[in-house]
Write a structure and sequence with these properties.
Length: 250
Amino acid sequence: MKKSGTGPALKRSGGRKAGEIRPIRIVEGVQKHAEGSVLFEMGDTKVVCAASIEERVPPFLKGTGKGWVTAEYSMLPRSTDTRVAREGRTGKVQGRTYEIQRLIGRALRAVVDFEALGERTITIDCDVLQADGGTRTASINGAWIALWQACARLVSGGTISWNPVREPVAAISVGVVGGRILVDLDYEEDSSAEVDMNVVMTGSGDMVEVQGTAEGRPFTRGQLDAMLRAAMGAGKSIARMQNSWRRGSK
């Protein structure tokens, strides 16, 4: 097996280095009725994330004084090069969609103080406008911003005393492509990856979730460690961006 590294052997779109993420763009307030909303772009992947607050909780939380955060995910029909059928027409959520929205929910819940939130539910809807790889990681990054906005609104309205979102949660893809370790894979890179991994981490560097799959030959422990190092470096840069946004947000 080829030795994996993060050197400059591969030419990437936009001239990116192996450990460099795509440009990030944040547009706030894209849905005026939502308690929090953002258009989150990572390169050509674009996701709208909107937060809705409801004064109710799932049955298992009634009377506990604790809240809940959950998420839903979908791809618009022309978010890809060929039309994707709307899942609502089939009458059920597909396996991939169900897996991704559960991942988004788990990632967000890892950084929320549910007692501070109180008995209410915040649902984050993540709708992919355009897909070019990394839709689930972009959804997590954008969903965190929408969640923070919604909680900030609860604080400013006097409903709760402090923002229950303790710290950022950042997500990034990493993989082995042509024997090289790359972060934030676009669609072309993801399609040819020998190993594909998604890493979710907190702003303080703790792991929330690691999903990794060999698409061909198995990968070594050394490659795994190298991918995690690369992902953590990229994840920390996203968390810094989220913190910077939070400090500048009104």
